[in-house]
Structure formats: structure tokens, C-alpha cells
Amino acid sequence: MSLQVEKLEGNMAKLTIEVSAEDFEAAVEKAYQKNRNKLNIPGFRKGKAPRKMIEQMYGKEIFFEDAANYAIPSAYAKAVDECTEEIVSQPKIDIEQAEAGKPFIFTAEVALKPEVTLGAYKGVEVEKTDASVTDEEVDAAIERERENSARTVSVEDRAVQDGDMTTLDFEGFVDGVAFEGGKGENYPLTIGSNTFIPGFEEQLIGAELDKEVEVNVTFPEDYQAQELAGKPAVFKCTIKEIKEKQLPDLDDEFASEVSEFETLAEYKESVKKNLEEKKAEEAKLEKEDKVVDAIIADAKMDIPAAMLETQQRQMAEDFAQRIQMQGISIDQYFQITGLTRAAFLEQIKPQAQKRIQSRLVLEAVAKAENIGASDEEYNEEIKKMADAYQMDVEEINNMIGEFEKKSIREDICIRKAADFVVENAVEK
Hints:
CATH superfamily of the largest domain: Trigger factor, C-terminal domain
CATH architecture of the largest domain: Orthogonal Bundle
CATH topology of the largest domain: Trigger factor, domain 2
């Protein structure tokens, strides 16, 4: 394998990668072994036809596509290892030459890590964040706990009110015709949750049990089902059940049930202390954000579009994994929210850009201040990982490769750089 690197404008580069004719031939043979059972050659049982016969009938190029798919990943990985530039995007692959008996040549267009020119990063002035806790905030926190401790009871002697948890049957009609997906039975709906079309839930207030009511709404212009977007609709609804929350009394008994304290006064003091600790941590993080934002604003860097797109895709994949753990697929999420994948990627674009900018400037600060990661700090990080996965430290060290070990040390440096700029910032 040989490599040529051509730098392009905008921190992009084109890698020209050549795979030897011998290695490509091995990939073609592998492709033949994979596909021979799928091809019918007169005079031969399926899977028994020699490769030469197949190539005579279908052309020598018949196995080239699969061969390329075998050859490219390993060759590209070797090229990345050999390349002295730091690649920060997924490659855009183009095949330049795929011929029998000749080297296989392909190009990979990639983004390179941009240079960062730091401006001011020490003594950055930021507005001080108020971390004080008010009585109103304490009361609100306790009220939320009351809500969490509330009993749910069925109601039969009144109509629907705002905040009620209802169960209903409904069927939607557009121009007098029922539409697909517009019918539900025994559907749970909390009035005021704003989970239905705007205006739907409000019109159920005052509805009585087992009596049909009509709800008139207009689908939003950007509704996911295009055939319904912007159209007026009538929903025939029947409330099958009404439930309401009953809050516990705010007294010593309540305090003892929801906390380790015996009196309401002690419980309130504990809530206040916890809020103060939480707000202090939030203020610290907000200060860090402000400081890093100021450093970014005074720095110069040219982020390639491919680098940003790679970050967007990574964030989208991470998000999909997180919601999958909650039992929701990314397709279901798009259906619920009305978003498309393209719209979602555009939505997270500013966050992706900020993440890249933050990392780049903090890496530059770490370099400027000669901030490194000691073995003790690295070992501490490995121990945290071991504890999290309930594994031995040695197991973790044996499991992760050199790239992961390098990344861990880099992350430590980033955190230390963030601490450095925050400690050296000035609050106004």
C-alpha cells in the first residue's frame, strides 16, 4: 500500500491510496468465494463453476465491487496511520482504478484538524452568575415533591378539568371522511400536557363521562402527514375515565414520608441546602461556558464542513442510542416530533459547532500552557471506568487499545485546560 497526500483549500485533503495488484487479486478471490454460490453457469452445479468461467461469461469486473469493499477499509486504516496529518472526518471515497492485474487505486477526501490561533484566554472577564436560592424556589421544589407523592383517584361526579388524567375514545374526520391513524380507543391523555394538536385538549375541558363531544382543530402547516397539513378536522371524542391527583398535606407527616427528617422545618432546610449545592454546580458550569465562549470569540479557526458534518452524525448516533435505551427508536422519535433526519441534523448543527470550537480552543490552551496528563490522573480515570463497568483495572487496560488510551489522556488535558481558564477568569 502506498499513500499520497494532497492538501486542499479549507483544511481539506485528498489521500490517494494504492493497493498492490497482488492484494487486490486476493480481495477479488475473496469476492469470488463469497458470490460463487449465487451464480448459475451452464454445465456446472451452483457454486462449482471456476472463477475464470464466471469472469468469461459476466466479465472480469463482476467481482470488483465486492473486492473494493474488502480492500478499501483496511487500506484506508493503514493510510490514516501513515498520514502525518490529523484526520477529523469520515472519508469521501472515489475509485480511480480497478483493473485486473493492476494496482487498485482510490482517493479519500477528508477534513484535517484546523489550526487554532488563540486570542485572550487568561483573565477573561465574564458576568457573575447568581447562585442564591429564594424561598419561592424552595417552595416550588417541595410542591414538586407533593406532586410526586400525590394519589390518583377516579372521579365520577364532575366534568373534565384542566390537569385531569383522562382515558378517551376518539376518531378524526377531514371533510367528513375518517383518516388513517386518526382513531384511538382507551387512549390516556392528561389535559394540559400539550401532546395533541393545538386546541384539542382545551376543548375537552367540560366534557362529561360517556358523552360524545366534538373537537374542532386545524392541523399545523408543518404536520408530518402532508396529506393532513393545514387542514381542518373534527374529532368525535368520548371520555371513558377521569382521574385527578390528590396532594398530601404539607405537614410533619409529609416531611417524614419523603425524607429522613421528622419535621417540615428540617425538611425545608435540607431542600434549601440541596438547591444551593445544585445551583453552585450549575453556576460553575455556566461560568465555564461563558469563559470558553469568550475564548472562542477571540480565537481564529477554519472548521471544515466535513468535520462539522461528522460531529453532527456522531451526536445524532449518540442521541439515538440514548433514546433506544428508553425504548424509543430514532424513527419513532421522528414520527412523534414530526422531524426528519435532515431537520434534526440541522437542529443540532449549532451545538455540534460549539462542541468542536470548545475542544479546539481548549486543546490549544493545553498546548500553550504545557498541560499534560500524569500517569496518576490516567490511572484514576481507568479506575473510574473499571468501577462503572464493575471490572478490574487490569481488564480495562487490556481491553482498550492505544487510540483509546491516547483519547483518555487527551480528555484529561481538556478538562484541566477548562479548569485553568475558569480559575484565571474574572467575574464582573
